[in-house]
Specification:
elongated; 355 residues; Receptor-associated Protein
């Protein structure tokens, strides 16, 4: 992922470092329209490529009277949708400067070495794919060039093959006729997997979420809870917060559930009960929100619950990554060990036969 981010940076495309810097500059100019436009003009002059075009569009939209969140939403890829939604919520109340600073820190946390897990996931996936691909290629090479030579050598000296080598040769003989049929599908699947992985990493860098996981409603729960807590802290109305959440979500089940949640709140229903019935939170999480609301800390409860869910996901992900690398290493080690045993046993049997 760091290579992809550096590639985006060299090509002057939107990426977390530029996005975080832009939010910091905007936070220092909130409340002064003249200073804001002058800052964007200076930033446009020192930028280049696609990022300069994005800053130019932002300045033009603000000059024509668009709000900050409205201008961001009209420029494709300049900021992650969740950040735009947070800015939209803050514009409905107070604390826009604090929200810009908080979102800048959130974007900065996605950079390598800042405590994020995206880098380790992408790096481990690429490492596992490369190891398994090289191992498969080595096995095919050995079967195509090593097996015929072994049969020729043992047949020339009239020595019987050892059992382990004979089992491997029988397995290869049974599957060798079907190997050409699997070459094209394997290559096609490999290329498709690489393209899909590259596109998902690219979209994750721009959007801030994995497109493959974006259709899972529970995946968006921390973001929605954070927006609700932000709306309560800044004094924004819940329908406005939920409208901002709907606009940031991709089309699908999650957007439909948030629309139902908004309709339930507008009709006078309980927000916590609607969150639970929509499947975005669980029963024990609703009890936590109820307790925080009873103590007068509803906004803190939403933010703390979002943070707790994210930390739990991070722990599970790190636990999974901790198991995945040893499993791949053990698999490769077992295959290499089996190959070494076959080779040494074949050499031993051949020397005994010649002796």
């Amino acid at each position: 992922m760091s290579y992809l981010r550096h590639w985006y940076y060299l090509r002057s495309r939107p990426e977390p470092l530029r996005q975080a810097s832009l939010l910091l500059m905007l936070a220092g100019s909130v409340g002064n329209a003249t200073a804001l436009l002058q800052m964007l003009q200076a930033h446009e002059a020192e930028s280049s490529g696609e990022w300069r075009d994005c800053v130019r569009q932002l300045r033009s939209l603000l000059e024509t009277g668009h709000s900050l969140s409205g201008a961001f939403s009209l420029i494709d890829g300049i900021l992650p949708p969740a950040t735009i939604a947070a800015i939209s919520v803050a514009e409905g109340g107070d604390g826009l400067t604090e929200v810009l600073l908080e979102e800048s820190q959130r974007l900065g946390a996605r950079l390598p070495g800042a405590g994020g897990t995206q880098e380790s996931v992408a790096a481990l996936a690429m490492w596992a794919g490369a190891v398994l691909t090289v191992l498969l290629g080595l096995c095919i090479y050995l079967c195509l060039f090593f097996v015929p030579k072994v049969k020729q050598i043992f047949g020339g000296f009239g020595v019987e093959l050892p059992l382990s080598l004979q089992a491997a040769l029988d397995f290869w003989t049974n599957w060798s006729a079907l190997l050409p049929l699997f070459v094209l599908p394997f290559v096609g699947c490999l290329v498709a997997a690489i393209v899909l992985f590259w596109k998902n990493c690219s979209r994750q860098l721009q959007l801030g979420y994995w497109p493959l996981l974006g259709h899972w409603p529970r995946y968006w729960t921390p973001t929605i809870l954070r927006l609700l807590g932000l709306g309560m802290a800044t004094g924004a109305t819940m329908p406005r917060v939920l409208n901002s959440a709907v606009l940031m979500l991709p089309a699908g089940r999650t957007a439909t559930r948030v629309i139902q949640l908004r309709d339930a709140v507008q009709s006078g229903g309980s927000l916590h009960a609607a969150l639970e019935s929509s499947g975005l939170i669980r029963g024990r999480e609703r009890h936590f929100l109820d307790a925080a609301d009873q103590r007068g800390h509803a906004d803190w409860g939403f933010r703390q619950l979002a943070l707790s869910i994210e930390q739990a996901r991070r722990r599970r992900l790190q636990r999974l990554l901790g198991w995945l690398r040893p499993l791949v290493t053990v698999l490769v080690g077992v295959l290499v060990l089996y190959y070494c045993l076959i080779v040494f046993q074949a050499m031993t049997v051949l020397l005994e036969g010649l002796a």
